[in-house]
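Q: What residues go here?
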């Protein structure tokens, strides 16, 4: 018995609609970069729909088997990258740094889009004076409640202030504020933090270039900006939207928007053009084969290994390292001394 076949007109219609779908995906990818380039510094980066979604999910932040289980597993790799990069740069600067355990002690760190405080608590335990901010009041409420219940953390309830971040050189202080990056910049002023982090946030904001400028302006000269986000590739769509949202239901459908994903080369290009002041040099001053020097910026892929149930940081210079940046990746860039 021969397998049944669709009539030719129907078969052509299916191929046409499939091609149309891929074409829409391609043009959405292009439109995201064009619209980002056209954004201006006066636009807000806060997306009310994104804030509403994460506010609804906020009660699950500290459930290691719930909605944010993959972020719990990713957190050790984020910390590993931050510590290793800071230690590398201290040694590059000729400073003494005995180990990665001490490299964050006494630094003023801002975590933008801190969610329930997964990264913030880790940073504070390592000695960083950490301020976590989020545009969702529910997220800040959960983060504050969790931190206040742990006596090992040096947590204090924060009230919005125009004063600089705490500068204690002892145990890392931890505070939270319900606010946005642009409001922190407006109230505290620029060049306030040794380190600014924003993990898995860039793909959820409006006007990503405005967001990047605000985060960059908050970094002290010689300071560091760390980002974690998702590249805009077919592989990323397959893994983070088709599989994670619709097939496996690991996260709520609609959590991610493919057109908002940002490719590593787009971040490199942005900071290759970005100057803290008109007379200063760009944050990335030169490229070698499209790759910045490791003392100015670096991109590292992070890959989930399902048989281990953990994320791993792709080694620098590994075979297929660029492929490893095709979905989730970490990005570091350093503000030039002025």
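A:
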């Amino acid at each position: 018995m021969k397998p049944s076949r669709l009539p030719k007109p129907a078969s052509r219609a299916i191929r046409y609609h499939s091609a149309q779908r891929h074409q829409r995906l391609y043009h959405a990818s292009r439109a995201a970069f064009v619209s980002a380039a056209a954004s201006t510094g006066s636009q807000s980066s806060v997306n009310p729909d994104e804030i509403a979604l994460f506010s609804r999910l906020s009660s699950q932040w500290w459930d290691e088997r719930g909605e944010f289980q993959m972020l719990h597993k990713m957190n050790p790799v984020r910390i590993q990258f931050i510590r290793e990069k800071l230690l590398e740069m201290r040694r590059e600067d000729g400073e003494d740094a005995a180990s990665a355990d001490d490299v964050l002690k006494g630094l003023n760190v801002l975590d933008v889009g801190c969610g329930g405080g997964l990264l913030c608590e880790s940073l504070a335990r390592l000695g960083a004076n950490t301020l976590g901010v989020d545009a969702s009041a529910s997220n800040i409420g959960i983060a504050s409640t969790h931190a206040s219940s742990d006596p090992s953390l040096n947590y204090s309830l924060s009230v919005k202030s125009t004063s600089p971040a705490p500068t204690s050189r002892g145990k890392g202080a931890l505070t939270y504020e319900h606010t946005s990056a642009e409001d922190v910049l407006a109230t505290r002023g620029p060049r306030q933090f040794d380190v600014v982090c924003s993990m898995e946030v860039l793909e959820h904001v409006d006007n990503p270039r405005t967001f990047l400028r605000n985060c960059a302006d908050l970094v002290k000269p010689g300071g560091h900006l760390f980002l974690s986000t998702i590249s805009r590739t077919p592989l990323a769509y397959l893994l983070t939207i088709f599989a994670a949202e619709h097939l496996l239901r690991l996260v709520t459908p609609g959590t991610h928007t493919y057109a908002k994903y940002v490719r590593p080369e787009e971040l490199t290009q942005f900071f290759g053009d970005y100057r803290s002041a008109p007379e200063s040099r760009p944050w990335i001053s030169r490229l070698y084969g499209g790759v910045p020097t490791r003392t100015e910026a670096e991109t590292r892929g992070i890959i989930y290994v399902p048989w281990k149930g953990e994320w791993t940081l792709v080694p620098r210079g590994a075979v297929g390292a660029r492929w490893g940046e095709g979905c989730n990746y970490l990005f570091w860039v350093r503000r030039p001394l002025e």
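A: Context that may help when evaluating the design: The radius of gyration is 21 Å. Confidence is low (pLDDT under 50) at residues 1-24.
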